[in-house]
């Protein structure tokens, strides 16, 4: 049995060290920590009389990025997790823990680490952070590729589709379309040639779930693609992935090569008569290319502009042939559904939304990172139990889901359930999984403007409602935040927003007004403060705030040195002052002043 | 062999590699940018002639995608994250400070001495360290306008191969 072989492998080596090399781990210096472990253990293995059999691995995102670099040390089946590890700390861990078996308690994780995982449910992310993503054997030891083998050798394509349909799996790319239905529709087409595409464009500007899945467990996505391609009878597949994700591209490339060597990809895969192979296509940095028809245009080497649907890609897709496009996370769910069955899968989640959802949980909270929760969990549980509440004990104001296509949900609705229907009813969307928590110091008008700036810039320009409508809406928001808003602006925004939503060609324009409309709906007063009283209550909008130095200034000069615009003068030990016309309102003085002598108004 | 003609040889190889593959324009331009750091006008001219693709189409694709640059970029690339998490933690202020420090005028993204190029990117996946900037390959998290002044000074005074 698999379990035995796994145990064998772990005991063969007495001690296993796992270093997080997810996006957060690497940025915090994870690679240097990994090197340090390799050096230290190598060095002592030779010298010490006691030679522990120790192996050191890289793993993908472990989840709690705000405590990076995280390191797991496994010894006799017992796991110790260390947090905030730096290369210079490694020597002591090796000496005390690995050689002498004494855990370095003061560097281990605290209670909040366990609380962070308490309400989570790791299904898709189960192996992320546990296995070395560049080692196919590690994935195989966890029953990897057994689901694809089962589908291809024991099930008919129709049976696969039925299983996926009854699992209730819906697309995780944003729209939530039932995956089995999409496949069935594609399978029913007459054309012989079909394509299967994995959408790894991940355009939401505050999210990194798909990146973390590919970097942490690329084989699960490949296996999902094999299952899907079998169901629709496709011989060729593509992964369309952002070029800004070099590590994900690299690990995916390694994984594809290994899978080919094993005969899981290529000709006659799994010993059947079926051929299927996958190519990587690098996206070139356009948000709209996440939209299916634009993505297809981009793979074909054209400008990534969407076209009207129907015909849907399932009818006429890549090179005019029936094509299925699925999101990374959708695909990573598939091996589990085939392995554990539709019944198991549909037992997780809420009525209309089955399974789990991965979120990139960030913003003004204590614990930030990658989480996976069962559908139907409440926002409150996510923000207070998992994320540990608002940082610096400020007041929770709103949570933004769905990125530039989504909306803001106010604190009064904190008991809301997280599933497709409930979020949509509240004026937001599930989206691909960005979740940003905002506090009292965030200006909702500025947030709306931020997202609209993004969509306006990313509008491909093909259809006028999106090209011109978002531009006009943005101009209105710009004048409101500059203190030049007019009484009628809110009504105008609502009218324009409504029209852009219903008349735009693709999902980009159809959802672009959401951040604006949802904030007007829930935070109307804040807009009115900007328009009528020319005030930004959260003190964010530059034109509506001024920085000045109070009499209590003791002339320490910290602000003068910190000011990048050289807008502060004053002699040492004397009152300083800010030249308002030079001030760029960066807030550097406000932050460095240790005596609270800089005022923001 | 001088480096320029070596680059031209590489260009020739790339053109051969993509001669017959379907949907070749984007990977072709990506490879070219890998060599030159941007897409030189001469290269566009050459692709157009050799592969018989109209220049208008090539420029159409090049200007559509944010990844492609038609002008040479600076020695040091500063990538400022403008993702949502970084935005709510003040990335706009950071970017303004960087522009002021480097003396970039509106619409400019490369300094006159070609030492720095400032680029923006959406979420680099390290939101827990927001706001984040990347200089060349080094990630700096929890950046404040004050810290950025000090960090940039290091790159301004010497070459860029040491870390904080
Ligand atoms: C403007 C726009 C951007 C999108 N970006 C993405 C994306 O980055 N990743 C993704 O998987 N889907 C994205 N989608 C959704 C896709 O069009 C498509 O619905 C999805 O990839 C289908 O896969 P699924 O059924 O597995 O969710 C985007 C849609 C629009 C309109
Ligand atoms: S938003 Fe800046 S790293 Fe994610």
Question: How would you sum up this structure, described in words?
Answer:
- Chain A has 601 residues and is an alpha/beta fold.
- Chain A folds into 5 domains: 2-110, Glutaredoxin (3-Layer(aba) Sandwich), CATH 3.40.30.10; 143-346, NADH-ubiquinone oxidoreductase 51kDa subunit (Rossmann fold, 3-Layer(aba) Sandwich); 356-439, Ubiquitin-like (UB roll) (Roll), CATH 3.10.20; 444-532, Up-down Bundle (de novo design (two linked rop proteins)), CATH 1.20.1440.230; 546-600, Alpha-Beta Plaits.
- Helix content of chain A is 42%, strand content 14%.
- In chain A, a hairpin with a 2-residue loop joins strand 3 (71-75) and strand 4 (78-82).
- Chain A is globular, with a radius of gyration of 26 Å.
- Helices cover 48% and strands 11% of the residues of chain B.
- Chain B has a 4-stranded mixed beta sheet with strand order 2-1-3-4, covered by helices on one side.
- Chain B has helices spanning 3-17, 25-36, 41-51, 55-64, 84-88, 91-102, 145-157, and strands at 76-81, 116-121, 133-135, 138-140.
- Chain B has 2 domains: 3-64; 76-163, Glutaredoxin (3-Layer(aba) Sandwich).
- The interface between A and B is large, with 61 and 46 residues.
Keywords:
heterodimer, A: 601 residues, alpha/beta, Glutaredoxin, Rossmann fold, Ubiquitin-like (UB roll), 5 domains, 4-stranded mixed beta sheet, 14% strand, disordered N terminus, B: 164 residues, alpha+beta, 2 domains, 7 helices, 4 strands, disordered C terminus, binds flavin mononucleotide, binds FE2/S2 (inorganic) cluster
The level 1 CATH classification of the largest domain in chain A is: Alpha Beta
Given helix and strand content, the structural type of chain A is alpha/beta
Radius of gyration of chain B: 18 Å
Ligand inventory reads: flavin mononucleotide, FE2/S2 (inorganic) cluster
CATH hierarchy, class of the largest domain in chain B: Alpha Beta
CATH-defined topology of the largest domain in chain B = Glutaredoxin
The largest sheet of chain B is: 4 strands, mixed
Gross morphology of chain B: elongated
| Shape call of chain A | globular
* Euclidean distance between termini CA atoms of chain A: 68 Å
Q: How many separate helices of chain A?
A: 25
| CATH-derived topology of the largest domain in chain A | Rossmann fold
């Amino acid at each position: 049995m698999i379990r035995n072989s796994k145990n064998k492998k772990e005991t063969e080596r007495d001690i296993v060290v796992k270093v997080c090399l997810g996006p957060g781990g690497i940025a915090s210096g994870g690679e240097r920590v990994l090197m340090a472990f390799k050096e230290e253990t190598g060095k002592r293995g030779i010298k010490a009389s006691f030679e522990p059999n120790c192996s050191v691995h890289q793993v993908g995102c472990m989840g709690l990025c705000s405590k990076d670099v995280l390191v797991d040390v496994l010894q006799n089946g017992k796991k110790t997790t260390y947090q905030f590890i730096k290369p210079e700390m490694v020597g002591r861990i090796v000496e005390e823990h690995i050689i002498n078996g004494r855990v370095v308690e003061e560097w281990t994780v605290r209670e909040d680490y366990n609380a962070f995982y308490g309400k989570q449910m790791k299904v898709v992310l189960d192996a992320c952070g546990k296995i070395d993503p560049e080692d196919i054997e590690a994935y195989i030891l966890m029953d990897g590729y057994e689901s694809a083998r089962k589908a291809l050798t024991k099930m008919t394509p129709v049976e696969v589709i039925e299983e996926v349909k009854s699992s209730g799996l819906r697309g995780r790319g944003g729209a939530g379309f039932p995956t089995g239905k999409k496949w069935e529709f594609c399978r029913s087409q007459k054309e012989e040639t079909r394509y299967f595409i994995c959408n790894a464009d991940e355009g939401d500007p505050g999210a990194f779930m798909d990146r973390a899945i590919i970097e942490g467990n690329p084989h699960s996505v490949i296996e999902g693609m094999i299952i899907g391609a079998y169901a629709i009878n496709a011989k060729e597949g593509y992964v369309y992935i952002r070029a800004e994700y070099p590590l994900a591209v690299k690990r995916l490339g390694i994984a594809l090569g290994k899978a080919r060597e094993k005969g899981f990809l290529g000709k006659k895969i799994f010993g059947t008569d079926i051929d299927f192979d996958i190519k990587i296509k690098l996206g070139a940095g356009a948000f709209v290319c996440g939209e299916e028809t634009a993505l297809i245009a981009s793979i074909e080497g054209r400008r990534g502009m969407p076209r009207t649907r129907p015909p849907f890609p399932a009818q006429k897709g890549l090179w005019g042939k029936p094509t299925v496009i699925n999101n990374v996370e959708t695909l990573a769910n598939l091996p589990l559904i085939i392995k554990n069955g539709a019944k198991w899968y549909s037992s997780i989640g809420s009525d209309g939304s089955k399974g789990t959802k991965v979120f990139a949980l960030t913003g003004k909270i204590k614990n930030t990172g990658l989480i996976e929760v069962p559908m139907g969990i409440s926002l409150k549980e996510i923000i207070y139990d998992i994320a540990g509440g608002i940082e610096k004990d400020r007041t929770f104001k709103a949570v933004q889901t769905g990125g530039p296509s989504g909306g803001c949900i106010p604190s009064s609705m904190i008991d809301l359930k997280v599933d497709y229907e409930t979020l949509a009813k509240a004026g937001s969307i599930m989206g691909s999984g960005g979740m940003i928590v905002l506090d009292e110091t965030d200006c909702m008008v500025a947030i709306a403007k931020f997202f609209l700036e993004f969509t306006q810039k990313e509008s491909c320009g093909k259809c006028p409602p999106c090209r011109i409508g978002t531009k006009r809406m943005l101009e209105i928001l710009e004048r409101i935040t500059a203190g030049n808003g007019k009484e009628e602006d809110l009504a105008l925004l609502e009218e324009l927003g409504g029209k852009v939503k219903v008349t735009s060609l693709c999902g980009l324009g159809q959802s672009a007004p959401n951040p604006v409309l949802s904030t007007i709906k829930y935070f109307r007063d804040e807009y009115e403060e900007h328009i009528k009283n020319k005030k930004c209550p959260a003190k964010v909008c530059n034109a509506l705030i001024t920085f000045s130095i109070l009499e209590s200034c003791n002339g320490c000069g910290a602000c003068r040195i910190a000011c990048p615009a050289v807008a502060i003068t004053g002699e040492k030990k004397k009152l300083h002052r800010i030249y308002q016309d030079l001030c760029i309102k960066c807030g550097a003085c406000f932050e460095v002043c240790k005596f609270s002598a800089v005022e923001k108004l | 062999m001088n480096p320029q003609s070596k680059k031209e040889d590489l260009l020739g190889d790339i053109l051969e590699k993509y001669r017959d593959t379907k949907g070749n324009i984007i990977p072709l331009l990506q490879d070219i940018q890998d060599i030159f750091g941007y897409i030189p006008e001469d290269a566009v001219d050459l692709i157009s002639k050799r592969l018989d693709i109209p220049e208008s189409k090539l420029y159409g694709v090049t200007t559509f995608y944010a990844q492609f640059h038609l002008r040479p970029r600076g020695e040091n690339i500063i990538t400022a994250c403008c993702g949502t998490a970084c935005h709510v933690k003040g990335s706009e202020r950071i970017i303004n400070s960087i522009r002021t420090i480097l003396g970039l005028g509106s619409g400019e993204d490369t300094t006159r001495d070609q030492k720095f190029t400032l680029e923006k990117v959406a979420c680099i996946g390290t939101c827990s360290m927001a706001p984040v900037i990347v200089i060349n390959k080094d990630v700096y998290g929890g950046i404040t306008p004050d810290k950025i002044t000090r960090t940039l000074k290091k790159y301004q005074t010497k070459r860029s191969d040491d870390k904080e």
